[in-house]
Amino acid sequence: MKKTILIGLFFFALSTNVQAQLVKFGVKAGVNYANQNGSNITVNSTNYDTEAITSYHAGLIAEVKLTDGFSIQPELLYSTQGATYKNAFEEFKNEVGYLSIPVLAKIHLNKTFSLDLGPQASFLLSERNNFDVNNAETFEFAAVGGLGINITKNFFLQGRYVLGLSEASKEAEVKNSALQVSAGFTF
Question: 168 is in which domain, residue-wise?
Answer without folding.
Answer: 23-186
